[in-house]
Amino acid sequence: MRDYSIEPSVVEGKPTFRQIDELIGAPLEKMPDKKFYIAISITGTMFLTGIICWGLSFYYGTGLWGNNNPVGWGFPIVNFVFWVGIGHAGTLISAILFLFRQRWRNGIARFAEGMTIFAVMTAGIFPLFHTGRPWLAHYLFPLPNDHSLWVNFTSPLLWDVFAVSTYFTVSFIFWYVGLIPDFANLRDRTKNKVKKVIYSITSLGWRASNRHWQHYELVYLILAGFATPLVLSVHTIVSFDFAVSIIPGWHTTIFPPYFVAGAVFSGFAMVQNVLIFVRKVFNYEKIITVDILEKMNKIIILTGSMVGYAYAMEFFIAWYSGNQAESFVFINRAFGDYAWAYWIMVSCNVIFPQLFWIKRIRRNIPIMFIIGVLVNVGMWFERFVITVTSLSRDFLPSSWAYYKPTLIDGGILIGSFGMFFTLLLLFTKSLPVVSIAEIKSVIDGAQPTHHHKEANNGK
Amino acid sequence: MEQNNYNYVKAELPKSVGKTGVAFLLVGIVAAILAFVLEPARASFSSLLLFVYLMGLGMCSLFLVALEYLTDAVWSVAFRRISEFMTPLIFIAPLFAIPVLFNMHDVFHWSHGEAVQTDKILQWKSPYLNMSFFLIRFIAIVGIMTLFFYLIIRNSGKQDKNPDQKYTRINVKLAAILIPFFGISITLISIDWLMSLEPHWFSTIFGIYYFAGSLLSAFAVLTLFSVKLKEWKILPDFLGRDHFYNLGAFMFAFVNFWAYIAFSQLLLIWYANIPEETFWFIAKFNGSWKYFSIGLILVQFIIPYAALVSQPSKSNYKRLKIMSVWIIFAHLYDLYWLVMTTFDKNGIVFGWIEIGFIILGIGVVLLLFRFVYAKRNLIPVGDPKLNRCINFHI
Question: Rounded to two decimals, what is the model's pTM?
Answer without folding.
Answer: 0.94
